[in-house]
């Protein structure tokens, strides 16, 4: 005699129509697209909160057909390695920056060039413009679909062992530099000696004297306690960073239109979360530095820094001629 399971007996008792209904519900709950999302920040950073929001929003908007698992601290590998996964068609989403995208389409690097913007909100004027759409199309041709541009990361300032008010104050100083040509060019133009090293090694470098200063958004430097070794917060405001989120163009193209909209809307939700939290952090951070015994240097000659870094736009490899004027005209609208 063939045994009948308890589940089957229950279904029979409820009526034969129950089984198809259960099957339909299970099929709807199963994800059609599963992604791993990588970002380089810690779980304490607003970027992580925002990427979790992206995952939650994508799942909710798609009724479970999109599933996203978030990996902080570059848990899937270096930015370069993860970028190649994206380009080669892996089901990976990456929170990155304009300078990283610039290795594929150099014009993207202008979005994080020195003194391009005076205020963070100016960047929003680029959204929806033909110029940014063309930039996105060129990146898509390289295998990377940008699903959001407007994740505010922060305005970059200098944390130093001595006050920095003008470019000549940087002469012969060892300036920690991220491994991107734009940073190297900027620090050289400012008159410093660029020292390329990873962010995690900065504290030791400051303590041992191999580094004299670094630059990054103030909340990012605070989280790593670099203020314990460098006590001058110099408000140069030399770069304003808005981070893009990218995924594989090949995978995006395979998604039905309704799920493409879901992932774009989820990315927009995340951008709002990240931008709001980062702006709030910047409003609160100076008081924290002061309480830690740091000196806030506000009388920085930004125009002098703007002048010495301006030639970068003319000599940066791969830039479209006149790109600074083109983008600044859009920002001014």
Give a description of the structure.
This protein has one domain (31-331): Bacterial extracellular solute-binding protein, family 7 (D-Maltodextrin-Binding Protein, domain 2), CATH 3.40.190. With 333 residues, it is of the alpha/beta class. Helix 3 (46-61) packs antiparallel against helix 11. The chain has helices at residues 6-14, 18-29, 46-61, 79-87, 98-101, 130-141, 181-190, 202-208, 218-223, 249-254, 257-291, 302-309, 312-315, 323-331; strands at 33-38, 66-71, 92-95, 144-160, 174-177, 193-196, 213-217, 232-248, 295-297. The chain has 14 helices and nine strands. The strands form two sheets. Strands 1, 2, 3, 4, 7, 8 and 9 form a seven-stranded mixed sheet that branches. It has a two-stranded parallel sheet with strand order 5-6. Strand 1, helix 3 and strand 2 form a beta-alpha-beta unit. The model is unreliable at 1-27 (pLDDT under 50). The chain is globular.
Task: Give a quick set of tags describing it.
333 residues, alpha/beta, D-Maltodextrin-Binding Protein, domain 2, 20% strand, globular, disordered N terminus
């Amino acid at each position: 005699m063939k045994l009948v399971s308890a589940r089957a007996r229950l279904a029979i008792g409820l009526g034969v129509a129950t089984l198809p209904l259960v099957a339909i519900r299970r099929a709807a709950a199963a994800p059609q697209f599963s992604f791993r999302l990588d970002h380089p920040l810690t779980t304490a950073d607003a970027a992580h909160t925002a990427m979790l929001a992206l995952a939650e929003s994508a799942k909710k908007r798609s009724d479970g057909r999109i599933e996203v698992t978030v990996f902080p601290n570059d848990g899937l590998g270096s930015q370069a390695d993860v970028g190649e996964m994206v380009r080669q068609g892996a089901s990976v989403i990456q929170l990155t920056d304009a300078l990283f995208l610039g290795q594929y389409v150099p014009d993207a690097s202008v979005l994080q060039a020195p003194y391009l913007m005076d205020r963070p909100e100016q960047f929003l004027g680029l959204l929806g413009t033909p110029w940014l759409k063309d930039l996105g199309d060129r990146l898509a041709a390289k295998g990377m679909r940008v699903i959001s541009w407007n994740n505010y990361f922060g305005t970059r300032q200098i944390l130093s062992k001595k006050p920095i008010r003008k470019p000549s104050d940087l002469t012969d100083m060892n300036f920690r530099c991220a491994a991107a040509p734009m940073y190297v060019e900027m620090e050289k133009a400012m008159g410093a000696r660029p020292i390329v090293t990873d962010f995690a090694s900065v504290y030791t470098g400051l303590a041992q004297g191999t580094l004299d200063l670094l630059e990054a958004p103030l909340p990012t430097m605070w989280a790593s306690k670099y203020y314990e070794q460098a006590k001058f917060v110099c408000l140069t405001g030399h770069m304003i960073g808005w981070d893009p989120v990218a995924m594989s163009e090949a995978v995006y193209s395979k998604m039905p239109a309704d799920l493409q909209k879901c992932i774009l809307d989820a990315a927009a939700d995340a951008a709002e979360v990240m931008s709001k939290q980062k702006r709030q952090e910047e409003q609160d951070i100076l008081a924290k530095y002061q309480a830690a015994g740091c000196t806030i240097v506000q009388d920085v000659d930004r125009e002098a820094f703007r002048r010495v870094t301006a030639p970068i736009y003319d000599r940066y490899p791969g830039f479209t001629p006149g790109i600074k004027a083109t983008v600044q005209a859009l920002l001014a609208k």
